[in-house]
Design goal:
Distance between the termini: 55 Å
Radius of gyration: 17 Å
Pfam family, one: Helicase_C
Order of helices and strands: HEHEH
Strand content: 5-15%
Number of helices: 3
Keywords: Hydrolase
Protein name: Helicase C-terminal domain-containing protein
InterPro entries: ATP-helicase/E3_Ub-Ligase, Helicase_C-like, P-loop_NTPase, SNF2/RAD54-like_C
Structural class: mainly alpha
GO molecular function: hydrolase activity
Strand order of the largest sheet: 1-2
Length: 89
């Protein structure tokens, strides 16, 4: 068992022997959470990576989680956009 704040656990670690990621506080930046999860879900990982989130209903954390999910849902739309041409401007 290793307990790390997400800001430290999301950077520069390869935890391929781990299988579970437990997130106890949601962040407004979904990319930081994804990076923390990807510390476990990496090349060389032989086990299924399981992500557990603890979010209590009707709390600030629930609202933060919902806002983070809205940001995540916007990402695929952004990637599908085509670059503007000179005629579009």
């Amino acid at each position: 068992v290793m307990l790390l704040p997400i800001q430290h656990g999301a950077n520069g670690l390869n935890l391929i022997e781990a299988q579970h990621v437990i997130l106890v506080e949601p962040l407004l930046n979904p990319a930081v959470e994804a990076q923390a999860i990807n510390r476990v879900h990496r090349i060389g990982q032989r086990l299924k990576t399981l992500v557990h989130r603890f979010i209590i209903c009707n709390t600030v954390e629930e609202n933060i989680y919902k806002m983070s999910q809205q940001k995540t849902n916007l990402l695929p739309m952004k990637q599908k956009e085509q670059p503007l041409s000179a005629n579009d401007m």
